Amino acid sequence: MDARRPGLDPAVAEVRRAVRQALAALEPGGTVVVALSGGADSLALAAATAFEAPKRGLRTVTVTIDHGLQDGSGDAAAAAAAAAEALGLEARIVRVEVGAAGGPEAAAREARYDALRDAAIAEDAAAILTAHTLDDQAETVLLGLARGSGATSLQGMAEASGLSGVLLLRPLLGVRRATTRAACAAEGLEPWEDPHNRDPRFARVRVREKVLPVLEGELGPGIAEALARTAAQLREDAAAFDEMIDETIEDIVEHAEAGISVSAAALAANPAALRHRIIRLVVASEFHQSLTRAQTLEVARLATDWSGQGPIDLPGCRARRAGGRIEFTARR
Fold this sequence. Notes:
Its EC number is 6.3.4.19. By secondary structure, the protein is α/β, with parallel strands linked by helices. It has two domains: 10-226, Rossmann fold; 257-330, Uridine Diphospho-n-acetylenolpyruvylglucosamine Reductase, domain 3. The chain has helices at 10-23, 40-52, 73-86, 104-122, 134-147, 150-154, 177-186, 203-219, 223-252, 264-269, 272-287, 293-304; strands at residues 31-35, 59-66, 90-95, 127-129, 160-163, 166-169, 253-256, 259-263, 312-314, 317-322, 325-330. A six-stranded mixed β-sheet has the order 3-2-1-4-6-5, sandwiched between helices. Strands 7-8-11-10-9 form a five-stranded antiparallel β-sheet. α1 (10-23) crosses α7. The radius of gyration is 23 Å and the shape is elongated. The N and C termini lie far apart (62 Å). The model has no long low-confidence stretch (mean pLDDT 89).
């Protein structure tokens, strides 16, 4: 059934439809947590959830994270909570301490997600809903491309993923940011404008304010949608690779003393993309470390270009050729 009806603004209808589709996967009678910053995206999400969740028998609680990173952050959080209550929702405000590891953006993101997870667990929530839009997805893909961080980063964000055992849903990944703003305007909601969203110190802001507009101007409209489609296609490819890796690993990987070993011949026989993924997965799963591309290629040479080279020191472990196998052992 079409979500539109006489008098319903098209932007409001689009956001509600996206939320309804996301909530359809949840069992009735539970609770959902909506991450609410007070910006247009999250405010439109909260309003749509307030409308759609009761139809599924779902209780909604908004959680506003006060990072304390700027003057007036407490007032902005209180305003967001008040907006949620005006929509008939329960509202919570959580103040977090933001560390310095990984830079301000990464540290704030980690603190935010930790707080959302804890709030969801406290509410016994079935899912957390965040307001990432198609524009956010496009920015994520461009940032991943610029950093050369491989297909995993270019996959962007998934519509559904896990957050330490809690289901994380992003209903608005197919919705443009302009649509959420239009939805807020149609419903008489006044979004908070986060000053950080205009601060050029942040790479994501530079992508949003400068890079994407230039691409749109030079290459024509539809760049954001094309980047989002690319992310979706790469996630499909990654899912297929993951199945292949699971099947392959069962045959070629064995546990060894103080580590794990992989058949060199079997590793060499696989395509490079699969070979490199197996190497990275072995190190990540056994030693909880990530390899750079250069490190991955050096390990691969133990299988594909063996000429007696010695052990390779890697993050958290060491790789060496031992007969027909490549052994990964913990570094002392």
